[in-house]
């Protein structure tokens, strides 16, 4: 994005988005970074294109654009927050396994998979999720403004097809990258600013990330 904003030949940016989502912190970091770049380059228009999927954190990024286009069958939205975990308390009892957990305070083991969930800890976690959801909703409202329709149901965590998303004001039109370049921006060609892949480093990062994601899912990481 920075290289595209710094290129004097670039008159508009067309980020292509295709992701089912990710972590709220990374989404907010990218969102904030694009906003900062926009502030220094207000004349540059951003028109986002969603391919197969623009859900959760991916949609959080899309709303930073001046306009969003998607295909009729694209999956759009999923404006919600989740935390995944597992509970093994019954399994350990049946297997005769004794759980030994030592903590220095009352709630340090709140997400422990081998301990029963206490009501006050569950309420606290739900409060955290509600707060992050409110942040997500605020970003969507800021980006989409009066174009949003359908009331609170658009923030229910449901996904919508591209056609439904258009009716709800989640996107501005139906089309792909070529549609946006030719019909929306009136340009014949575009410059691909995507960095070339680093295959060796990418595989290592992917493997490390896969392990990290598996561990995070096990302990209950917050996700969009």
Can you put this structure into words, describing what you see?
This protein is α/β, with parallel strands linked by helices and 224 residues long. The chain has helices at 2-6, 24-40, 57-62, 89-95, 119-144, 162-168, 177-184, 199-219; strands spanning 12-13, 16-19, 45-55, 67-70, 75-77, 82-83, 159-161, 173-174, 222-223. It is elongated and about 70 Å long. It has eight helices and nine strands.
Distance from first to last alpha carbon: 22 Å
Encode the helix/strand succession as letters. Answer: HEEHEHEEEHHEHEHHE
Total DSSP E strands: 9
Within the CATH hierarchy, at the fold level, what is the topology? 2-enoyl-CoA Hydratase, Chain A, domain 1
Number of helical regions: 8
Question: How large is the share of residues in beta strands?
Answer: 5-15%
Largest sheet: 7 strands, mixed
- Count of folded domains: 1
Say which CATH homologous superfamily is assigned: 2-enoyl-CoA Hydratase, Chain A, domain 1
What structural class should be given to the helix and strand makeup? alpha/beta
Rounded mean pLDDT score: 86
The poorly predicted ranges are none
Question: What Rg do the Cα atoms give?
Answer: 21 Å
CATH class: Alpha Beta
Gross morphology is: elongated
Helical percentage? 40-55%
- The CATH architecture can be given as Alpha-Beta Complex
């Amino acid at each position: 994005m920075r290289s595209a904003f710094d290129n004097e030949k670039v008159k508009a940016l067309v980020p292509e988005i295709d992701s089912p989502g990710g972590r709220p912190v990374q989404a907010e970091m990218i969102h904030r970074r694009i906003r900062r770049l926009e502030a220094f380059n207000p004349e540059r228009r951003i028109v986002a294109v969603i391919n197969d999927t623009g859900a959760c954190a991916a949609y959080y990024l899309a709303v930073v654009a001046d306009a969003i286009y998607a295909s009729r069958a694209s999956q759009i939205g999923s404006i919600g927050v989740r935390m995944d975990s597992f509970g093994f308390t019954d399994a350990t009892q049946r297997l005769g396994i004794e759980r030994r957990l030592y903590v220095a305070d009352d709630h340090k083991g709140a997400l422990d998979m081998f301990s029963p969930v206490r009501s006050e800890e569950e309420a606290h976690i739900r409060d955290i999720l509600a707060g992050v959801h409110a942040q997500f909703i605020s970003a969507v409202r800021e980006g989409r403004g009066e174009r949003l329709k359908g009331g609170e149901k658009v923030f229910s965590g449901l996904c919508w097809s591209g056609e439904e998303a258009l009716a709800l004001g989640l996107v501005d039109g139906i089309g792909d990258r070529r549609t946006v370049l030719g019909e929306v921006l009136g340009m014949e060609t575009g410059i691909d600013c995507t960095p070339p892949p680093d295959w060796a480093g990418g595989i290592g990062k992917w493997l490390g990330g896969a392990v990290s994601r598996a561990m995070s899912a096990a302990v209950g990481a917050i996700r969009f």
